[in-house]
Automatic annotation (TrEMBL):
This protein's UniProt keywords: Cell inner membrane, Cell membrane, Membrane, Transmembrane, Transmembrane helix, Transport
Topology of the protein relative to the lipid bilayer: Multi-pass membrane protein
Segments crossing the lipid bilayer: 12-29, 67-86, 106-126, 168-186, 206-227, 248-269
Tagged with keyword Phosphoprotein: no
Coiled coil: none
InterPro entries for the chain: Sulf_transp_TsuA/YedE
Organism of origin: Sexangularia sp. CB-2014
Name of the featured protein: Sulphur transport domain-containing protein
GO cellular component: plasma membrane
Location relative to the cell: Cell inner membrane
Pfam families documented for this protein: Sulf_transp (PF04143)
Statement: the UniProt record of this protein carries the keyword Lipoprotein: no
Amino acid sequence: GTVLAQLGMGNRQAMLVAASAMVGVYLFSKSSLSNAKAVAGYSSTPVEKRVEAAALERQLGVSFGQAGSSLLAALVAVIAAVEWYAPYQPTASDTVASSFFARQTWSPIVAGIVVGLNQLPAMLLLGRSIGSSSAYCTLTGSACSMVSKVPEYLQNYRGRGADSWWQPMYLAGAVGGAYLSASLSGSDLLWSTPQSLFAADAPNGGLGFVLSAAGGVLILLGARIAGGCTSGIGISLFSQLLSPAIESVAAMFGAAIVTANVVAALGLYPGFVTTL
């Protein structure tokens, strides 16, 4: 999701990350991992049965409403604690913005609610929950078809019309929305192209070529191994109270916190220092 927003702002590092992400998808499709679920017999169990078994309310022996309200209360408590410790502060330009959409920053609470509400049109119009990593599979498969044989794994994401292309269209809309938001708020567009292989070019200039490319590969390689990304697992499946999704989100953010601190400690990305 962050990559899409950065693409909309013209961030050239994000372009490299997105292209490298397709490499990550291709590597996954050519590895034995792409067949691991089938080999293990995972696919022999109907999806409905797997979802039912993974439901948090079933595992706790309570209703969906009880499980959901309890989790909601816990999350509200965490949000309250974070806001008490490090409250959101609008920028000086936000306080004089002519409209809500002219603000450069939104309250994270408001932004989170908007992201969650995006599930409604997806479910009502498409009968699908939001996700984005499958779009990279569709795009990578299409790119492969132009130069070579499409790997078997990627063939599952092609040739199904709107069922294959709604996610790429969703990604395109996210990029367009980010561009519109940046334009309305007067945010800087077209960040500089990275000039070094490893180090960041400036405190807020982003990472060098190698780390940007490596990050892109790892993002989608990890997403395909997990069977979903931070949107599909962290928002969609988490909101459906599936216990594997809750565990994955905890692992995602736990690993991200450790990684951010390690990167900052090594001085690989000075821009991180101001955010920790």
